[in-house]
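[Solved] Which block belongs to which protein?

Original post:
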Amino acid sequence: MQPITHFQSRTVVLPTKDIDTDQIIPARFLTTTTREGLGQALFHDLRFAADGSMIDDFVLNTPEADGCEILVAGKNLGCGSSREHAPWALLDYGFRAVISTEIADIFRNNSLKNGLIPIVVDAATHEFLLRNPGIKLDIDVRTATLTLPDGGIVQFPIDGFARYCLVEGIDQLGYLRQQMDEILKFEETRSWTP
C-alpha cells in the first residue's frame, strides 16, 4: 500500500441511499482473492444492461465521471454483507475516497485497511456535495480534513491507528513488522513459554 497523506480530485455523485456491498460488487464476481480486475464489475448491475451494454445515463458511464477519485454517495453506504471485495472494487476502479453522512461500520473498517478513505460528513456538507457534482475537493488524511472549493474546511472522523497506517503506507501486518525488534526482545526475555 502506498502512503496516503493528501490528494485532490473531482467528485462523482451517486445519491442513492442504502447502497449495499452487493450493489457495489455483485456476489457472482467474488471468485477471486486478488483485487485486480474487480473495478470492471463495480456497480455492475447498475452500470450494465442484461445484454452487457452500458447504461448510458448511469453516472459512472458519463464523461463527467472520468478521472474522478472521490465518490459521494447517499446515506448508509456499504451496508449489507461484510465482503472486502467492495472496497477492492472501488479502489481498482480508481476511487481513493468515498463520502456520505453514514458509512456502514464493517465497510468503513475494510476500506481503511485497504487504503480507501471513508469520509463521514454532516448533513449540510453532504447536501452541498450532492447538489454540486464534479467539484474539486482537497483531502488531507493527516489532519482529517476535507477542503471545499470555497476554502471551507470540514473535519471528518478517522481512527488514529488507521490514520497512522494510511499515512505510513502500511497495513496491520506492516505495523506489526515495524515492531519486530520489540517482539523478538520480548520473546527472548519473557519468563514463561507458551
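(Second protein starts here: sequence line, then its C-alpha cells.)
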Amino acid sequence: MFSVKIDGLQETRKMLQNLQKQVTYASAVALTRTAKEVQKDEIGHIRSAFTVRGSWLREGGKFGVGVIPASKDNLAAVVENRAPWLEDHEEGKTRQPHGKHFAIPQAAVRRTKTDLIQRSQRPRALKRSFVLTSKAKGIPMLFTRVGRGKGSYLKFMYKLVPSAKIAPDLRFVQTARDTVARVWKAIFEGELVKAIRTARWG
C-alpha cells in the first residue's frame, strides 16, 4: 500500500496573500477614480450654482477642486475645496464687512470680458461719486455723475449693505455623498475583477 499526501497550505497562503494585494490595489484605484468623479461633479455644481469669473476653478488650478489620490498604503482619496471664499457657502453664514458696508454692484457697473469688475469701476476708484439714502428703506446707494451740465445724469453703481447673508449653496459634502453612492459600487467591482483577472497566482 502506498499513498500521496497533497498539502496545499503553503500555496493557499501565497494565493491568499496575492489576492489581498490585488484587493488593496483595486481599492486604491477605485477610490481615486471615484474621487475624480466627485471632482467633476463638484466643479459642475459650482458652475451651475455660482457665477464663476476667471479661470480659478479649472482642474489643477491653485484654488480649484483638488484630488489627493489613494495608495496601497493609504486607502483614502480626498477631494478638497481650495477656494477659501467658498467656505461660508457650505453651511451658510452672515458675513460682516471689514469697513462699514459691502458694495453690491448694480447693472451699470462695467465688467471685463471675463465678467470681472473693471478697476476704474470699483467703488474707491469712481470719480464724481456720492452716496444717497433711499427714503423708503433707508438703504445707502453709491451713484456717479456722468457728463457735464444739463446733459449730465446719475448712474446707480452700488447698493451699500451692512452685512451679507450667505446661502448654503455650495453643497460640497452632499454632492460628494451623492456621487459616491452613484458610482462607487460599479467602479470598485470593475477594478476588482480586472485586478483578479491579471493577478499572478504562481
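Accepted answer:
You had them paired correctly. Confirming on the second one: The chain is about 35% helix and 20% strand.
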